[in-house]
Each structure stands twice: as structure tokens, then as C-alpha cells.
Amino acid sequence: MNNKKIYILVAFAGITATVLNISNAAVAAKYDVFYGNLAFYAITCIASLITYIYFKKSDKNKKKLLDIGGPLNLLGGTLGAFVPIFIALGFLNLGAFITTMGVIGGQFLTSMIIDSKGWFGLPKLKMNKVKWLSVALIIAGVIIMTM
Amino acid sequence: MENIYLLLSLCAGCFIVLQRNVNMRLAKNVGLVGSNLINYLIGGIFAGLIYFAVSCLGMVNKVHFGGFHYALIIAAVCGITIVLLSNWLVPKVTAIAFTVFTLIGQCTSSLIFDIIIYKKEITMTNVIGAVIVIIGVMLYNWDHRKEES
């Protein structure tokens, strides 16, 4: 597969993320954000169970599902339970574009904090002028969008 | 009031990154598909708890419970597609290219959906703000890649 097709597929992954959020917002608009969130998790739970059963057969790593390595490793699912609620509220009240930009801004600011502190066992990155400038630009961009 | 929703979208972005990193640690113990399953299982339990809490507070209409919307299937298909596509594409392109092209896809599609579905008017300040955010993200990635190489 050539590079052009791969880049188109990467952009398609971004479009898919927006379609996912639009779909969640449509469910939230018909019922409410909390039921929409619960229904989304119920469906994706079944889908991920099917994926698990399908891929586990070909998985060479025979790791046990219950060997989670500490309760803190379950925090991902806990935080994730709030994400569709926040995004659906944003989509219904601010629209897709501003919410998407807000989510992207939040992702990069958090990544920057994790990078600079070296959390999650990741290598600690030294903050330089360029990185601080990019952080300032992200914050300024989000503030300008609210004007 | 709009600023609260923007703050919530920033929080969503923050939670997504924390979730991704915690799941990465979990995946080291139980594997990728196992981590995915546990993530959605725990998420489902907490989504149920949140629904129970808000329904006790009278914030939701319980008549909706059990309702089904076709968009749920689209959301589930999209969720799995993103995971599979990302796992397949990440090793094939550079990190900056992945970030930039995902951003392009997200920005253009959200703009189109805003105009077609939400009938929103995109103001000049919205576009300028978004362009500044994109420049910031690209600058951070460029500097990060430069340090790595």
C-alpha cells in the first residue's frame, strides 16, 4: 500500500472518531446523555467481548485476564465512563467543531504534563521554549474559540 | 454557560489521555484485547453507577431505559474500527504524520457535521482559535520528534 493511501486511512480514523461522537450525541439527544452513555457502554462491552474471544485464540501471549497488576490499572475504565457524557454535552451545546478542538487541546495539555513529569513510567522529557510556546498557543487557541 | 461545556470537552481530552496510559499499563499484564475488554467492562459498570446516581437525583427520565437507537450500532462499529485502524496504521507512519492527518480528518469532518447536522454558524474567531490550537499541537509534535531523532 502506498503512502498516499495510508495517509488517507489515517485521516479516515479521525473522521471515524467524529462519527462516533456524533452517534453518541444523537443517542443522547433522543434519550439523555446518561442513558446514551450507559447504552454505548453496554453495546461496546458486548463488541469487545466478541473481539476478545476472536483474537484470544490467535494470541500467543497466554496472559490471564484476572492478573491486572493492581487496582490502579482499572482507573482507565472508570475515567472513560465520563468521556461520552462530556463529549455528548459538548456536541449538543457547542457543536462538533469547538468540542473536537477542546478535546484535542485537553489531550495535548495532559500529554505535556505526563511527558514533563515522567508519569506512568514514561521517560521524563525536559520542557524547552518551543514546548512552552506550543502549550501557550493551545491555551490561547481554546480561549479565542470561547470569544 | 458555553464555557462550562468547553471545560468539559477539555476534561474529556484529559481523561482520554489518562485512560490511554492506564490501559497501556494494564495491557502489559493482560494483553491488548484483554485490556480493551476490562476497560469497557469497568466503564460499563461505572456508566451504570452514574446512571443510577443521576436517576436517584431525578435527573433522568426512566421511561427511556431499554430504548434503542440505530446510532448505537454506528458508535460501536466506529469504536472498534478506530482501535483496529490505529493498531494497524501507527507502525506504518511517523507519529507527527499520524497526529497531523488525524487532526485534519477530525477538524474537517466536525466542521462539515456542524454545518450539515447542527446547522451551526462557524465564526471567524472559532476558525482562528482552531488554527492556533492546531499550530500548537504540530509545534509540540515537531519538537518532540526532533528531540527523539
Let me know the number of strands of chain B.
Answer: 0
Query: C-alpha Rg of chain B, in Å?
Result: 19 Å
Number of domains of chain A: 1
Radius of gyration of chain A: 19 Å
**Computed structural class of chain A:** mainly alpha
Description:
- The complex is a heterodimer of chains A (147) and B (149).
- Chain A is mainly α.
- Chain A has one domain (3-146).
- Helix content of chain A is 74%, strand content 0%.
- Chain A has helices at 3-30, 33-56, 75-80, 83-93, 96-117, 129-146.
- In chain A, α4 (83-93) packs antiparallel against α5 and α5 (96-117) runs antiparallel to α6 (129-146).
- Chain B is mainly alpha-helical and 149 residues long.
- Chain B has two domains: 1-67; 68-149, no CATH class.
- Helix content of chain B is 81%, strand content 0%.
- Chain B is built from five helices and no strands.
- The longest helix of chain B is centred in the N-terminal third of the chain and has 29 residues, at 2-30.
- The termini of chain B are far apart.
- The chains are: A mainly alpha (147), B mainly alpha (149).
Write the layout of secondary structure elements.
The complex is a heterodimer of chains A (147) and B (149).
Chain A: H1 3-30, H2 33-56, H3 75-80, H4 83-93, H5 96-117, H6 129-146
Helix pairs in contact in A: 1-2, 1-4, 2-4, 4-5, 5-6
Chain B: H1 2-30, H2 32-56, H3 71-89, H4 95-116, H5 124-148
Helix pairs in contact in B: 1-2, 4-5
Provide keyphrases for this structure:
heterodimer, A: 147 residues, mainly alpha, 6 helices, B: 149 residues, 2 domains, 0% strand
Structure in a nutshell:
The complex is a heterodimer of chains A (147) and B (149). Chain A has 147 residues and is an all-alpha fold. Chain A has 6 helices and no strands.
